[in-house]
Amino acid sequence: MTKPRVAVIGCGGTISSISTHALDVLDYTEFGRKMSVGEALAMVPEIGQFVEPALVPYREVGSSAIGPQDWLHLAETIARMIAQDEGIAGFVILHGTATIEETAFFLNLVLKTDKPVVLVGAQRPMNALSSDAPMNLVGAMRTAIHPDARGKGVLVTLNDEIHAARDVTKTSTYRLQTFRSPDFGLLGHIDGDAVRFYREPLRKHTLATPFHLDAVRDLPRVDIVYAYAGADEVAIKAFRAAGARGLVSGAFAPGLPTPAQKRALEIAAAEGVVVVQASRAGSGRVARRRYLLEKGMVGSDNLPPHKARILLMLALTITNDPDAIQEMFETY
């Protein structure tokens, strides 16, 4: 029987790493090496029991080196492959865990397909003792060809769990169960007998968003201002001098910057910089309370600062109106 074809895009990351010895789960990032996507898949021949992989080499880097230009390249690659080859059942992207949730959320907002797109990483290198990389790879392939994965937006799978790109975040440096969806939980499980989904995302994504690749080739600069006790306005002034069109305030819960930051953000908003108020807490909403409304600022809903930045970057390709951008934060 012919197996479904899955396009497998290699970006590097721990899942594509080889450490200097089997007990190295710490120093491999600097002293190990990154494999090509073909090398990585060759180490897990069990993948062939489920799919026929179509290899798409891209980068072999840690994901701290992945940024907006890579997001655009990945989105364009997937869009082109869909247009050229209708027979592809889905996509799996091998990616480092440091920024996997950001890449996934960007793709979730711009891709125009209902085919499964699954990002997968690992916490231990491929050759480490008790590595999670091989089983994570197999799980991603099984998810990408599962009929229930279709139409659920971009997915992130690790540790036998399936998460929505919008909700998932890395919560631990080394633990295998690092990825969580804090407010609403995971979408499903990847078990030995079956892939099972138990819920689906309600926020609009992929085909239902207004963000199109032909309009987002030059993403505007948006920076994040982190709150800490005694923080002043220096970072805000520096970001504005660098040309930021938007600022995300990663403030104290439930969305309160320091007094100095507050004054500087008010000035920025009054002068046309779009300011989104988020929280550094890691879960929970930042509502557009009366103060934010009167100052022309946006509440991030329950998006953390790094994901609020992505949505704001895309929103600014369409409008500078805080009211319209607020609606986007309540929709996507």
Give a short overview.
The chain has helices spanning 28-31, 37-42, 68-84, 100-110, 133-144, 234-241, 259-270, 290-294, 305-315, 322-329; strands at 5-12, 17-18, 33-34, 52-61, 88-94, 117-120, 155-158, 161-164, 169-170, 179-180, 188-190, 195-197, 222-226, 246-251, 274-279, 298-299. The protein has 332 residues and is of the alpha/beta class.
Give the CATH class of the largest domain: Alpha Beta
Please give the radius of gyration in angstroms.
20 Å
- The level of helicity is 25-40%
CATH homologous superfamily title of the largest domain? L-asparaginase, N-terminal domain
Number of domains: 2
Number of strands: 16
> Could you name the CATH topology of the largest domain?
Rossmann fold
- How much of the sequence lies in strands comes to 15-25%
Based on helices, strands and strand pairing, what is the structural class? alpha/beta
* The CATH architecture of the largest domain: 3-Layer(aba) Sandwich
Poorly predicted regions are none
What separation lies between the terminal Cα atoms? 40 Å
Numbering strands along the chain, what is their spatial order in the largest sheet? 4-1-5-6-7-8-11-12
The biggest beta sheet is recorded as: 8 strands, mixed
Pattern of helices and strands = EEHEHEHEHEHEEEEEEEHEHEHEHH
Number of helices: 10
* Overall pLDDT score: 97
Molecular shape: globular
